[in-house]
Amino acid sequence: MADAASITPSLLALNTSGRVLTIGLNRPAKRNALNDGIILELERTFATLPEAIGAVVIHGVGAHFSAGLDLSELSERDATAGLMHSRMWHRVFDGIERARVPVIAALQGAVIGGGLELACACHIRVADPSAYYALPEGSRGIFVGGGGSVRLPRLVGVARMADMMLTGRVYNATEGVPLGFSQYLTDAGGALAKAIELAERVAQNAPLTNFAVLQALPLIAEASPQTGLMLEALMASVAQSDQEAKNRIRDFLDRKTGKVQPG
Ligand code: 1HE
To answer: Choosing from 117, 175, 222, 232, which is the catalytic residue?
Structure first.
């Protein structure tokens, strides 16, 4: 039998509580650098998400979310292998962005390179004050390859991303909120708890609402206005006709459910 020291720890630390699956990137000694193993484990986890799971939280075990691509795996790759590797990341991160359920990233410490690309594939980002965002690809002589050039400009703009890549500019957690890196900023050490709290809440939404927000909204936002409006009307009519919507609206009219409170 293997002794404890010879057992390789799992690359992802998984924990299910109620309807929320928490996924911890679990290479703290390497600052959660993303090697092929961790990326493929993420793919497997999302591909086999149990039906009972209603939301997912991704965080980094230890002080950092992720130091990005594992640079030790890069040195021997030729152009074809690099192309395939990037497409593999695309496939996995697309699977997260188009997951059946909302995915929330809890960010602390380094959110760098591919780590930032992973965070961008999530639907909500929650940061604690230690979080910082950087794209050191420029200084390493490489380019983003995990969908960052598609997703990050939508959050923070092309000019800001270009500046980060060209000059190595780093943004801190406080700057990150108004700029669009994260939607939430917590007290020190509070990102994971807040992300789980939000996940528990979104897991209670009508499944069709979450489906519409995750699957229809991004397509509508990118469509021509007239196509978008037609898609919106179709999605709205499907959502309204769902029995879950009828029940929830009846509960409101019968005063059985909470009102919207001021923010
Ligand atoms: C790594 C990696 C990594 C740490 N690949 N091994 N990403 C980067 O260019 C960021 C590189 N990392 C850093 O700048 C720093 O490590 C941190 C700021 C994240 C953390 O610093 P620190 O002082 O806490 O830790 P450390 O001592 O630098 O690192 C601890 C160990 O993790 C060390 O290994 P050890 O065996 O010497 O202990 C580091 O070598 C290792 N480590 N980061 C491999 N990234 C699909 S395209 C995406 C392109 C990118 O993501 S480019 C950005 C890559």
So the answer is: 117
- CA of 64 from ligand 1 middle (Å) equals 10
Q: State the pTM of this model.
A: 0.95
211: region left, alpha or beta (phi > 0 left; psi from -120 to 50 alpha): alpha
| Ligand 1 pocket residue status of 177, Cβ below 6 Å | no
Q: What are 68-123's pLDDT values in tens digits?
A: 999 999 877 899 999 999 999 999 999 999 999 999 999 999 999 999 999 999 99
Distance of CA 123 to the CA centre of its chain: 5
Whether the CB of 68 sits within 6 Å of ligand 1: yes
Q: Which residue type, as a one-letter code, is found at position 32?
A: N
Whether 70 lines ligand 1, by a CB cut-off of 6 Å, is yes
SS3 198: helix
Under a CB-based contact definition with an 8 Å cutoff, are residues 194 and 134 in contact? no
Q: Which domains does the chain have, with CATH numbers?
A: 4-202 (3.90.226.10), 207-253 (1.10.12.10)
Q: Is 117 a catalytic residue?
A: yes
